[in-house]
Structures are given as structure tokens and as C-alpha cells.
Specification:
Bound molecules: beta-D-fructofuranose
Structural class: mainly beta
Number of helices: 4
Helix content: under 10%
Distance between the termini: 50 Å
Mean pLDDT: 94
Number of strands: 41
Low-confidence stretches: 1-21
Shape: globular
Length: 545
């Protein structure tokens, strides 16, 4: 209690900002943000922030008292007029360099930085990984995601939050879930509890219920939280955790709950040790274990899709973070595979999730994956790959998953030129004006007749490498629908730091990093012996920022 007296004395003496020895600083909040000078030369220290009696926010941070590489920030606008206490360990540096500000640091530069992706979602500052809680609700698509707002490397897992009305333009909001005393906020998913099974809703206000993993050195367990204001603020359930199975599985690894509705029950798919477990509930609070299938790692997905668009003939798709999937039947309690594992994507994609609650009138299964890509020199890391529509199609190998950018993305692409039946040299020539573009889409069909391979590069970096001798596409096995075909179609999306390629209408796709063309390097090159360009289209893509 001496402590509190010291604080009051301090307030009287020093006005709104002052220090206490013994590792505490109290700030009277009168602006919108706290800003934190960050240097990667400094070790992480753990500070905690709390506002009066509210929960503590523990954060590991590379604060510097010297020159900052960049400034991280925290929205504190809700606390105006109140006192925020920061505790820090002995020897901490840079605590007094934490400042208040009405704007986020370098506000006018955000989205204009040299290596900011132009039509992919990235965080304003900090690290992002898995998309979480993808859901459509009341006219908004919600993209929650694994986020470290305090630096560009992984840590301090929060659920970041962005919203969009068209799946193209995103607005980043304050984080939705913050670490607390029990641990950090790992991946999970969201549903709308339309019948108020959980009791969290209010008349006319169904709750958005999220399931997430709390990660601590001791254990991982599954928790829920709900929002009655469209995901802007969440209340964590007082009865958490709702699934605590570490001891049953004898593992630390039990995480990433994916919620879905099946008939009149709720289903949670959780990755536990060596595969995905299925749990059932009637109220989203009490869960019963039903079954387990081995062979998956992290970030479960499970959804039903019509085959070739026929709603009378559906199959269930199950995958883990790598995206390798099985097809099968699901009865609400058990997934029974009938085929797999198959692969539709390679490259930087990881931990992709699909949207819940897409209206029936739309009916699409829309996916967003994390692109494990960084952006040289930037204070943010990672990106969300383009939203794609997933469908099931009967192919020569059986039913397979197809992934194509959603029509909303195609619709913003503006055709700039198209050519048919041109040579390799002509391709290099007509594409030269576009070699420097940071927002470009190319769609081309190549025909091989004198060679076993065709490759396309930009500035010496490979965009596509197709080999019909080894039947490989960028190193992965690929054989077209007509196995005797000598043609391949590539739909290539180039952003400042990324490349996404969809082959033959989305039967196979991959993504990778990109170094921007510096003007000295060669432009586009199409290699292989006398490869013909049957068709080529070039599109400009506007920045979404
Ligand atoms: C996958 C993953 C998840 C986990 C999260 C932590 O990338 O490891 O399993 O919940 O990232 O950030």
C-alpha cells in the first residue's frame, strides 16, 4: 500500500507522467497511443501494462534508450483520463522513452513505404502469421491474425484485427485479443452463435464467439471469448479453458481450435500431438471428445464442398497447416477419409483458414493463407496471401481441390494489353515496359513442342519452371489434365515482395518472395527451346491502400 501512496504523491508532484524507483512507471493517459522505441540490437525485456484494476498485459519488448529502428504502438484511447502502470525489470532501458501520441508513429508514411505490399494485407507495424477467426458478419469480413504489435519478429501473440467489406480493401483495427496472465493468444476461429446456445448473446445481438489457444510454458489449452460489438472488443469466458487435454495426450502441442456448425451441434477440431481431434458441444462452453485422426500438424480445417458444383454430391475436406488434405465423410463426430493426402499448393503458404458464416446466397468457400514472406528493411513482417475460392473438381486423378483468386480480386485487375501467338523474344519485348511494375498480373498459355521444359523469369528470378520430362512444376510433381498436353497456363500475381502463381485454372498453385526489379537486371525471359506463347494478357492492379 506504500506503493499506492507513492503513486499519489508522484502524481501531485510531477503532473501527468512520472517515475517511481523499483520498476514502475505510471502514466496518466491523455492521448490515443503509447509509442515504444524499438531496436533489434537490444534484448527483449518483459514489461507489464495495467490500467487500474484491469488485467495485466505482459509484453516482451526490445525497448531502446538510444536510436530506435522504428516505433511500435498501442492504442490506449479507451483509457483516457486513467492511470496506466508499467512495471519493468531492474536494469531496463528505454522505459522513459515510451511516449504518448495522438497519432500512430510516422502515420503519413504508413502504406507508402518502399517495400510495402500493394494489394496484400500486411500489418501497419509488427509481425503477423496465421489468419484466425475468419468470419463474415453484418456486412463485414473479419480477418483476425496472429500478431506481435511490438516488433517485426514472432512473439507476444495477440489476435490482430482487420475488416473489409469487399475482401480486397482492409482496415486494420486495434488488436482483438491480448495476452494475459494465463499466456499468449494462439490461433483459432470464430462463429456467430445465432441461437444464443452459449448464452453470451443479447436480444437482437448474437455473439461472435471465438475459440483460441492459450499458450504458456506449462501448457496449451482451448479457450473461448465473445464479442457483442462486431469483434471490436471481446470478453474472455470466466470458465476458461473449455478444453484442457495436455495430460490426456501427454504433449504440450494441443492447439488451434477450428469451430464449425454441424446440424444442431457445435464442432471443434483441435490439433493434438499427432493429428486432429473432434470435440462436440451444444453450448460452445462444454466440450466432449469424439474422435482423433492422425497425420496432421497445426491449424485444422474441416469443411464440406459440392463436387463439380453439385450440392447433392458433397465431400468433406480436412487439412492442417501445410495444406496437404484428405477428402472424406464427416458425421459430426468422426472424419473418415476416402482419399488423400493430396497437395494443391506449395511455397510460402501456411496455416490457411476458410471463412465461416458466408451467406448461403454467396455460398463460396473462401480461404486466406499466411504468406511466410518478409519485406526488406520494413518494420512489419509476413503477409496474407490473396483470398482464393476453394472448389472440388473431378479430375483425371479423382476429385481434387482447386484454388483460384476470388472474383473480387480479378475484378480490380485492369487489362493493359493482350497478345496471341508470339515468340519468346516477343514476349520479353512486349513485357519490358512492365518489368518494373510492383502491381502486375500476367496470364499466359505456353506451348512446348521442341523442348521438354519452359521457364519464365523476371530479373533473373524464376517465376515458373515447368518440366514435362520429370513432370515437375517448380520442383513439385505436376501432370496436366490431358497427360499428353504440351501446354500450360499460368496466372501470375506480382506484388512488391511476393509472387503468387495459379496453374491451369487453380489446379495447382504456389507463392514465393520477390526482389523488386532494380532496372539494371534483365526483364522477363521465357526460356526453353522454341516455346510458343499462345496467349498473353497483362493487367495492372491498383494499390488497395
Ligand atoms: C502455426 C502456429 C500455430 C500457433 C501459432 C502461434 O503457424 O504455430 O500452431 O497457434 O502459429 O503463433
Amino acid at each position: 500500500m506504500i506503493h499506492n501512496r507513492k503513486i499519489i504523491l508522484g502524481i501531485m508532484l510531477a503532473g501527468s507522467i512520472f517515475f517511481l524507483s523499483g520498476g514502475e512507471r505510471v502514466i496518466k493517459i491523455d492521448k490515443n497511443y503509447l509509442t515504444f522505441p524499438i531496436s533489434h540490437e537490444c534484448d527483449r525485456i518483459r514489461i507489464t501494462m495495467s490500467v487500474e484494476s484491469a488485467e495485466e498485459l505482459p509484453v516482451d519488448i526490445r525497448l531502446t534508450a538510444g536510436a530506435a529502428e522504428y516505433k511500435a504502438f498501442k492504442d490506449v484511447s479507451a483509457y483516457k483520463g486513467r492511470y496506466l502502470k508499467i512495471t519493468y525489470p531492474d536494469g531496463a532501458k528505454g522505459i522513459d522513452a515510451i511516449k504518448q501520441s495522438d497519432d500512430i508513429p510516422d502515420k503519413d508514411m504508413i502504406y507508402r513505404e518502399e517495400n510495402r505490399p500493394q494489394y496484400h494485407f500486411t500489418a501497419r507495424c509488427g509481425w503477423i502469421n496465421d489468419p484466425n477467426g475468419l468470419i463474415y458478419h453484418d456486412g463485414e469480413y473479419h480477418l483476425f491474425y496472429q500478431h506481435n504489435p511490438y516488433e517485426r519478429e514472432w512473439g507476444n501473440m495477440h489476435w490482430g484485427h482487420a475488416v473489409s467489406t469487399d475482401l480486397v480493401h482492409w482496415k486494420e483495427l486495434a488488436p482483438a485479443l491480448y495476452p494475459d496472465k494465463t499466456g499468449t493468444m494462439f490461433s483459432g476461429s470464430a462463429v456467430i452463435d445465432k441461437n444464443n446456445d452459449s448464452g453470451f448473446g443479447e436480444p437482437g445481438k448474437p455473439a461472435m464467439v471465438v475459440a483460441y489457444t492459450v499458450d504458456s510454458p506449462d501448457r496449451q489449452s482451448q479457450c473461448i471469448a465473445y464479442s457483442l460489438d462486431n469483434g471490436r472488443t471481446f470478453t474472455k469466458y470466466s470458465g476458461n479453458p473449455v478444453v484442457d487435454s495436455k495430460d490426456i495426450w501427454n504433449t504440450h502441442d494441443t492447439r488451434d481450435p477450428k469451430l464449425l456448425r454441424y446440424g444442431d451441434r457445435w464442432v471443434m477440431v483441435v490439433n493434438e500431438r499427432d493429428g486432429h481431434s473432434i470435440y462436440n458441444s451444444t453450448n460452445l462452453r462444454d466440450w466432449t471428445f469424439k474422435s482423433h485422426i492422425t497425420g496432421f500438424w497445426e491449424c485444422p480445417e474441416l469443411f464440406e464442398l459440392p463436387v463439380d458444383g453439385n450440392k447433392e454430391n458433397t465431400m468433406w475436406v480436412m487439412y492442417g497447416a501445410s495444406g496437404t488434405y484428405m477428402l472424406g465423410d464427416f458425421d459430426g463426430e468422426r472424419f473418415s477419409p476416402v482419399s488423400g493426402k493430396h497437395r494443391y499448393v506449395t511455397g510460402s503458404q501456411y496455416a490457411a483458414q476458410t471463412f465461416n458464416n458466408i451467406p448461403d446466397s454467396d455460398g463460396r468457400r473462401i480461404q486466406i493463407g499466411w504468406g511466410r514472406l518478409s519485406h526488406p528493411g520494413m518494420n512489419f513482417n509476413g503477409l496474407m496471401l490473396l483470398p482464393t475460392e476453394l472448389t472440388l473438381k473431378t479430375t483425371k486423378d479423382g476429385v481434387r481441390l482447386v484454388s483460384k483468386p476470388i472474383k473480387e480480386i480479378e475484378n480490380i485487375c485492369k487489362l493493359a494489353g493482350s497478345w496471341t501467338n508470339i515468340s519468346q523474344d516477343e514476349l520479353a519485348h512486349v513485357l519490358q515496359p512492365y518489368a518494373k511494375s510492383d502491381k502486375l498480373r500476367l496470364r499466359a498459355t505456353f506451348k512446348l513442342s521442341h523442348a521438354t521444359n519452359a521457364w519464365l523469369s523476371l530479373a533473373g528470378e524464376s517465376l515458373m519452371n515447368y518440366d514435362i520430362n520429370g513432370n515437375t512444376l517448380n520442383g513439385a510433381f505436376y501432370s496436366p489434365q490431358d497427360p499428353t498436353s504440351m501446354e500450360i497456363t499460368a496466372d501470375i500475381y506480382l506484388d512488391r515482395t511476393s509472387v503468387e502463381v495459379f496453374i491451369d485454372g487453380g489446379l495447382f498453385s504456389y507463392s514465393m518472395g520477390r526482389k523488386l526489379y532494380d532496372g539494371d537486371a534483365e526483364g522477363f525471359r521465357l526460356g526453353g527451346n522454341r516455346v510458343e506463347v499462345k496467349s498473353l494478357e497483362v493487367f495492372n492492379i491498383p494499390s488497395i491502400w
